Amino acid sequence: MTAWIPLLVILPLSGAFLIAIFSGMFKRIGGILTPLFMLILTCLGFMFFFRETDVLVYHIGGWELYNGIPVGIHFVVDGLSVLMVAIINLMGFLASFYSVSYIRKFTGEKYYYALFCLMVAGMNGVVLTGDLFNMFIFLEIAVISSYALVAFGIEREELEASFKYQVLGGVASLVILLGIALIYWNTGTLNIADIAIVLKENGDNKLISFVQVLLIAGFGLKAAMIPFHAWLPDAHSSAPSPISAMLSGVLIKAVGVYAIMRLFFNMFTLSYEISMLITVIGAVSMVGGVLLAVGQWDFKRLLAYHSISQMGYVVLGVGMGMVILSVGGSRDVAVLAIAGGLYHMVNHAVFKGLLFLNAGAVEYKTGTRMLREMGGLSNNMPLTSATYFSASMAISGIPPFNGFFSKLLIIIAAVQGGFYLMAILAVVVSIITLASFLKVHRYAFIGFSRFKNKKMFGEAPFGMGLPMVILAVLCLGLSLLIIPFFRDIFLSPAVNTLIHTLDYSQPILGLLP
Questions:
Q1: Fewer CB atoms inside 10 A, N or C side of the chain?
Q2: Torsion sign across C-alpha atoms 460, 160, 255, 352
Q3: pTM over 0.85, yes/no
Q4: Angle at CA 469, nearest 5°, toward 462 and 400?
């Protein structure tokens, strides 16, 4: 099974190359190859849930240890990385399938699919790589592709949003690269597992604390956590809707939240101060994002602000687990908090991806994103309306949809861990979220139609409707992860990878040549 690991990066890179080369002769090759490759990647990603051992390591180039230091590149598949790979490629498949119909209204179709494949390759590389420098390289592949995709409409709004995204993304990349350089200067290695051993032996110092702050700022900006969120509302609302679904559903997780979890659990020694800082950032993002979303009338911009808020839940849950572990608190409560955060991360990919696809279908058929210009769409677009209702209930935490169970775990963990203010804020934010999406439902899908010709449009094409239906089913189906049998297969291995912080390095270093 180990031999299959590099295909998760090779296939999308090959797809980008083939599309760029042959799209001049075969105009539709991108719309055929991209969904096909994404489907293969999705199957590979889920296959690794049933791997023979907890950790798989693939060595690239046959590099031996140099003075005891692992200098070669290798990919690592463990409980956390396989969960991320599954999310990335499932959303990649659905978004690319949706794009076949959606992207025809744009020019430069071949560039779109080539960039899409590069973005997926970069994200897969980030979550699989076992060393910091290649994490940075893959991160840049993913975000540079996303810069171009945000500007794909080449209108003034898209270009401005992409420029802002590039400037702030460039700052974040410089901060991350500085942090990586300081780690290398301090430890003499870039291998994450090896760095963890060196830091454990040498102990924490002021330089490492400074590096931790740098990485929180850099990856926090990539994840658009408040106060690093300024680029996200413009970028997510301006991008083509399937790209908005990818940016919100998986990109900010892969290049932001995943990196924070991996490095702060499995590389650094957990400290109370840093853990509390991450928890507070999560809480502020959760509250600030929803308050900024309430007053929005642009459908996609409203969804973009809710991405900040919902990722706040993820960071809050993981942060509380970090705090509890750092002070030697109850391990069971820490497990519950981290499980809630990871569960909500999975759920967010599904319901927020669906909401952006809904918004794309509405804009595709009506030509507007402004809620005040809509109304009565449930009559013309019943499938879009029904799937929107499923996603809006899920993001608002209404049972029996998946968002309810992940939020419930986070709130219970907050109460059991003594984070009473966080628990109250999580409940209040969920109520405000529901109010925000009921506003969308009222102005867009029910009530009086504000369109001059009520019969001028109908439901979105099949290619756009099928991914929406699949995601709507998942909004209910993922509720099954609360059941121990399914949780132990998909979620618990990721939680165990983070909880057993001291056990991360040994299996990897033991498998190195």
A1: C
A2: negative
A3: yes
A4: 170
